[in-house]
Amino acid sequence: VRAVSPAAFATQCDRQSSYDVVLGKPLDDPIGLLAEAIAGRPALIVTTPTVDRQYGQALRDWIAASGVNATVEVVRLGEANKTMETVLQVATAAKRRRLGRRDPLIAFGGGICCDVVTLAATLVRRGSPYICMPTTLLAQIDAGIGLKGGVNFDGCKNFLGCFAPPSNVFIDMDWLRTLPSVEVRSGTAEIIKMALILDAELFEVVTGGWQRLLRTRYTDAEGVGRRVVARSIELMLEELQDNWYEDRSLQRLADFGHTFSARLEELSGYRLRHGLAVAVDMALSTVIASILGMLTHDECEHILAGLELVGLPTFVPWCTAGEMFPAARASARNRGGDLNLVLPTGIGRATFLHHLEDLPLTLLEQAVDRLQRRASERPCAPPRTVVAEPAPLDGITTPASVRSAA
Ligand SMILES: NC(=O)c1ccc[n+]([C@@H]2O[C@H](COP(=O)([O-])OP(=O)(O)OC[C@H]3O[C@@H](n4cnc5c(N)ncnc54)[C@H](O)[C@@H]3O)[C@@H](O)[C@H]2O)c1
Predict the structure, then answer these.
(1) 261 pocket-lining for ligand 1 (C-beta < 6 Å)
(2) Which residue has the least CA distance to atom 37 on ligand 1?
(3) What pTM value is reported for the model?
(4) Is the pLDDT of residue 393 over 90?
(5) Cα→Cα distances 319→38, 143, 323, 328, 354, Å
(6) Sign of the four-CA dihedral 271, 269, 404, 90
(7) E-assigned strands of 15-137?
(8) For 316-348, how does the pLDDT look when each residue is reduced to its tens digit (9 = 90+)?
(9) 146 CB under 6 A from ligand 1?
(10) How far from chain centre, in Å, is Cα 232?
């Protein structure tokens, strides 16, 4: 503590932390890294009904074999109830379980489970340790490996949230084997996002090997899927590394596909999967870049064709200029007032459109119109089922209406 004056004291409150993201088979080894991470403490493992159905037995067998003092709490989670209520449900379970200050919460599920448990962990006893075991492709390469948690609030996606690093992340790619195809596509959208901003070769590997990646759920015998996932994790961590808390800059390449997408999700009543909304946002941003002359026509077509090839939508009916214009303003409020729209300048390269004035309504109208015409000319691609597949909400009903973003 430094006395700045007799009546003022300056103190430093930095916190250093690091954690490992490990690809392996945590539930196959009763004395392995997962048991080490729990380190004899009581633990609360939060999972969802779908994951519990698929992997609950393996989890309970592991608990029994390892002798770890862990309780499993099954919570119904979907985008429509990614809310404070479910965070409080987790907190209630932690209290009931008598978790102490150093006892870990463990998220065993998709990105929503990771988001909710992360936020709950920051609140329980003012900050408890937590471990992520992400089970969807999207969570294994994005939502479950970073340090952000959050919930939707008052019609606004991720309005309440936190930055809190996990103590460990354990990933078993075999958990992907049971993913519905729409979830594989949704996760692939986030992989394509990283590829388009940073790694042209990754884009070609994913689009070129798509059929096999989809069929094997990224677990092909040749290890292509594993290399894609490992590379995506590496790219994501590298990208976040210098700006973990988003306090150094609010210009983030990883925000590619995340300017209009939250509004698309809200407008769909959360029926549109996160990655699919990101795909439409990427398509819109790509066409904007093309109109602005930052991207050649061929590059633009290559990106759109790549998205369509993996069955991702490049347009959805909720994507209107009238809705996307205020959506850009809502995103700017999250970025200190600047637009910071990420635009590809090639495959594997990107830049920012900094100011809201740089994105006039007429430009958005032109871009939306181009995507809409393109979609109507290609009635077969992408498959319509991508959006219409039964909403994976674990039985939760979609709210009848959604209000506009903050
Ligand atoms: N915190 C972050 O940094 C961050 C980053 C990106 C996305 N997100 C958030 O992540 C969420 C999306 O995550 P998601 O796509 O994983 O959604 P999700 O958690 O809803 O999972 C998708 C569906 O897959 C099911 N599922 C999970 N694992 C399964 C498995 N192994 N086999 C079969 N089914 C399985 C789930 O029950 C669910 O129905 C969004 O809310 C998004 O905002 C957060």
Answers:
(1) no
(2) 50
(3) 0.93
(4) no
(5) 45, 24, 7, 12, 22
(6) negative
(7) 20-23, 43-47, 70-74, 105-109, 130-134
(8) 999 999 999 999 999 999 999 999 999 999 999
(9) yes
(10) 13
